[in-house]
Amino acid sequence: MQRQMLKAKLHKATITEADLNYEGSISIDKELLDAVGILPFERVKVYNINNGERFDTYAIEGAPGSGIIGLNGAAARKGMVGDLIIIVTFGFYAPDDLEKYHPNIALLDENNKIKKMLTK
């Protein structure tokens, strides 16, 4: 039996832009994607700390080092610039994988720079 477990988390990311006219998705600074192992077009869940909204979308690569966290398309209605959000992905793991399992978690500062990594 496989279990679905947290794979990656960007904690307390600050929304830097919201573009209702874009096709959809969430733009995330490439350096943040790489740090926690989220791939472009991977499904992500987004939890808005400020208003309680929760939604699924997919990640797209933002400019490296830009700190961009951009809600695009319909997702732009789920948060405002300045809101704090949590971005997570999950994966399926076999029992043997769980012996060495640990998610990649990045705690972010107000500029969407990594303050601390919680990985093994």
Task: Give a quick summary of the entry.
This protein is mainly β and 120 residues long.
Which helices and strands appear, and what pairs or packs with what?
Layout: E1 3-14, E2 17-19, E3 25-29, H1 30-36, E4 43-48, E5 54-62, E6 69-72, E7 84-93, H2 95-98, E8 104-108, E9 114-118
Parallel strand pairs: 1-8, 2-6, 3-5
Antiparallel strand pairs: 1-7, 3-6, 4-5, 4-7, 8-9
Task: Looking at this protein, list some descriptive labels.
120 residues; mainly beta; nine-stranded mixed beta sheet; 9% helix; globular; single chain
Describe it.
It is a single chain. The two termini are 24 Å apart. The chain has one domain: Barwin-like endoglucanases, CATH 2.40.40. With 120 residues, it is mainly beta. Strands 2-6-3-5-4-7-1-8-9 form a nine-stranded mixed sheet. It has helices at residues 30-36, 95-98, and strands at residues 3-14, 17-19, 25-29, 43-48, 54-62, 69-72, 84-93, 104-108, 114-118. The radius of gyration is 14 Å and the shape is globular.
What's the level 1 CATH class? Mainly Beta
* Proportion of helical residues: under 10%
Tell me what portion of residues adopts beta-strand conformation: over 45%
- Number of structurally distinct domains: 1
Q: SS-based structural class?
A: mainly beta
Write down the secondary-structure element order: EEEHEEEEHEE
In the predicted model, the low-confidence regions spanning at least 5 consecutive residues are: none
- General shape: globular
Major β-sheet, in short? 9 strands, mixed
Looking at how many chains there are and whether they match, the oligomeric state comes to single chain
- Under the CATH scheme, the architecture is Beta Barrel
Q: Mean pLDDT, as a whole number?
A: 96
Number of strands: 9
